[in-house]
Amino acid sequence: MSGSDGKPEPLGRRLQAARESAFVGREEELALFGAALYGGRCSVLYVHGPGGIGKSALLRRFAQEAALAGRSVARVDGRTLDPSPAAFEAAAEAVLRDERAVLLVDTFERIQGLEGWLRERFLPRLPVGALVVIAGRFPPDIRWHTEPGWARELEVISLRDLAPGDAQALMDCCGVAEGLREPLLAFAGGHPLALLLGAAVAVKDEGASTRWIPDHDVVATLLDQLVGEVPSPAHRHALEICAHAYMTTEDLLRAALPDDAAALFRWLRRLPFVESSSLGLYPHDVVREVLEADLRWRDPQGYADMHDRIHAHLAEKVRTAAEPDVLSAVAALFYLHRDNNAMVEPYSWYEEGQIQESPLRPGDAERLVRLAREAEGERSAACAEFWLARQPSALRVYWHTETGEPVAFHAWLRLHEQDDDECAADPVVAAAWAHARATAPPRAGEHLAVGRSWILPAYRGNSPVMDLLQWRVIGNCLRSERMAWSCIAVRQPSTDRIECFRRHDMRDIPDAARVGEESYTMFVHDWRAVPPQAWLERLGGTPAPYTPEAPPEVELAVLSKEEFEAAARWALRHLTRPEELARSPLTRTRLVAGQSDGESAKALRELLETEIEALREGPRSVKLHRVLAATYLGDAPTQEAAAERLGLPFTTYRRHLVSGIERVCENLWQRELHGTLAAPAR
């Protein structure tokens, strides 16, 4: 087909036209962008909303509007960007030099950890007149609103479902027959992605409308019809691999499939629900989850075989990665275990960038000694100072990107022979050598590895720091040559972390060493008896349960107050999801002691609901009850929606929410300690 000038019409123009025709509604959002673009209403637009709500489509329209206004446009995608300040600044550098530039940041939830750095360090350097749009799943941090300087410069857009008229217009664009619209709207409401997926099925099969009922199986049914008949079993396998791995490359396909990886990769990238990035291909989250669940149910053995092939490929990547790429390689490997208990559950996949790792740099030593003193006392700080001078290359430092301050550091000490000075300086190293020599001493050419960490209290337990430390230790273990023993010292390990180490053949030696007043548990592994390949096989499959020689009669989780409060907050957020509550460490505390495994999650939910309801009794706490009930017991999709239903300003709503959560956490903590509650608010 030719254009008006007689030249062949580029395919890209047709694709662009199709996208424009499928963009409906969003008049208010476009008006806000126009006011910022032409009238300088603000410098930063922050768009947030759930997956599939249309954030990326809105950013594409913003890019068109900016181009029509003669503004240069730069784009950053958090899914493909290394979550570091340096990488972000390199991608967005043009906006710092051009007062008419427009920067569009998509998928910000993948680099949410950079939010503080962005607000405090990057954005204040913008020239007046430049415009930045940030789009992600999560609303901006409350500190945007509490900083007076951002009151004029920030505009927040909460992107929600399409209005009924706009949803009808989208079905017009998709060619949905009139008789099929009611069941499609009943299923999808105004959610753009669900409408598009449903419309794709409805247009192909009008009879499918009789199967559109509003339950959890609908999405699976629609996606099954949308994928339809694939060209061959190999194509089906390629699609399942794409759903299982974090990012799919031709290299990964080649390792997991014996068929033509190049042809399969080309086919995958053309599918309407598979997107491309600089790191590879990935399906939409909804598609990923459904394909995973379908294969697990339909072919459990095929699922296990696929998992093993991908696991082997990614494990080899860990062993061969360049040093700066080790953490990302280990993270990709661990993504395969996101639904099991292979390791302590990562803090989150979207906090990447909040903490950065680096080798020890000149001038860091004095700051790190102060950190060690604050974290563990004077005697431990002396140990840190010794190793900073003795093995500086063994140190890795973890920095908070917003403040630029160190929050933890880790030493992976490679010791080839016992040294009296080292043992005298560090009781942990002395204990490691004592254990190794008493059991199976290193042989000629082998070495002993000792892991030592100093972590500020706020970053212990589940945190991005612990994620990175965990991945660094695993990377060290898998990449080390001629390592006889690894001995990892942990101060006051939680029950979950002890169980995690045990499942992976890292035996715990309680009270192995004392440094000052603190006792350390040592987790040891003989890599000659169980080498890395065998260890990885246990990680890749279902590890055999660990049976201690003298198990306690009752295994209750004993949590610190910080760990307990973090678990309580997590449980509140997952109150309506029994399968998630069942994983909470609170199910193994005195709160619900005596319950069977199948009843612990139910008992925990009932206890949390009781605590929320109890706030109704106090004159001053009844407002806290209303906010907690609307947020966690109602059906409000977001905090903004809950505040709107309550008729509260969002700042007031957030204040009551924070106070209510603190009240519930304190009541539960008193019940855990004493079986009693804190005094009610009056």
Automatic annotation (TrEMBL):
Domain AAA+ ATPase: residue ranges: 41-224
InterPro entries registered for this protein in UniProt: AAA+_ATPase (IPR003593), AAA_16 (IPR041664), P-loop_NTPase (IPR027417)
Name of the protein this chain belongs to: AAA+ ATPase domain-containing protein
